[in-house]
Amino acid sequence: MAETLFEELKRYVGFGADDEQSLRSLHELARQEFPAISEVFYDHILQHEGARSALAGESQVGHLKVTLVAWMEQLLRGPWDEEYFLLRCRIGRMHVRISLPQHYMFGAMNILRQELNRIIDQRYVQQPARLFAARMALGKILDLELAIMLHTYREDLLAQQARSERLSTFGQLVGSIGHELRNPLGVIETSLFILKGRPLATDERAAKHLGRIGEQVTLANRIVTDLLDMIRDRPLKREPLRLDEVWKDALTSVHAPEAVSIRAEGLEGLPSLQGDPGQMRQVFVNLLENAVQAVGEKGEVVLSASAGPEKVELVLEDTGPGVSDAIRRRIFEPLMTTKARGIGLGLPLVKRIIERHGGSIAYAPREGRGARFVLRLPFQPSTP
Ligand code: HEM
């Protein structure tokens, strides 16, 4: 039978039966300390502002501490089989899904390495051969863990590449269809304008239907614009960008039911950024429209802004149902939608615009109910 990826990885780092034995012995010595190690691990993450922002809040940290203890149990007790590999891939994908930068993994793994090596050094101080074997085995298994985590990031990158190739093939087709649709839509709009001025429009039912046609033409135009924006990057302007002003301007295009409150905190105190106010307005409009639709007739949409030394962070939260696990992974993919109206270009466009400003956007589950988007924008974008 062909060698599996995990078998190949184990062969590559030379992980064998002796290492398994050493890890099982270490498990007996170290297991009481797992909860304390888990505390040290998350204290370290919480001290770093970038890493901390990947976490949704204290209750999530509480849960993660427990899962890390289980993770260490399995790390040292095995069995190190295909099921182990698949479980570790699932955990890796969780980090990919929350867009956790890969480099945080190395520092985090090092905490575990240091803590477990400390136990090895203390417990085997009189037994140099066992000490050496345990350190070797631990080094190998933690390298395997890192390899699996990086493998899941690579998987994601390859999937993204495949998607962007698919998109570029369809892009040209979509572009020309989009252009071709503009003309008939333009004709409908003009005819509608003329009809609205005719006696026909005084008939109540006819007027209602003319109104409906108008709404649908606007919607169709919006879809065409989004499609065209998606396939050809509009050049990015570089000018002073006041997010509070862009936000106020975006609010004028978003219609929310009366019992839905939309507010922003901390925007006015932000320094000016460099960027494209028109495109950033679209970011706010798309996010707000999604949030308002998710909230329904009653609820809250809140944007909280804060400035770090190099970046501005914006967190948009709503009290809607949130995004299910299944959708979360694909939420920024084009044509991914859960709405009856809409073709799934809103969030991909938002992501594209934020990234072209040198920033990032991620979905992070909100404590309790609702959706939470975290946007980060540098003061000075470095990308062209
Ligand atoms: C050696 C490194 C790491 C290990 C072994 C590890 C372990 C785990 C495990 C076992 C889970 C699954 C939890 C569950 O089953 O619900 C998980 C999820 C998670 N980890 Fe890590 N982690 C590592 C690094 C990090 C770092 C550096 C961060 C943040 C800075 C982080 C943030 C998270 C978050 C937010 C989740 C939950 C994701 C979700 O619910 O979708 N992890 N991690």
UniProtKB/TrEMBL annotation:
Coiled coil (UniProt feature): none
E.C. designation(s): 2.7.13.3
Keywords, sorted A to Z: ATP-binding, Kinase, Nucleotide-binding, Phosphoprotein, Transferase, Two-component regulatory system
CDD domains: globin_sensor, HisKA
Any one GO molecular-function label of the UniProt entry: oxygen binding
Catalytic reaction(s) noted: ATP + protein L-histidine = ADP + protein N-phospho-L-histidine
Histidine kinase domain residues: 176-381
Keyword ATP-binding part of the UniProt annotation: yes
PANTHER family for this protein: PEROXIDE STRESS-ACTIVATED HISTIDINE KINASE MAK3, SENSOR HISTIDINE KINASE
Name listed for the protein in its UniProt record: histidine kinase
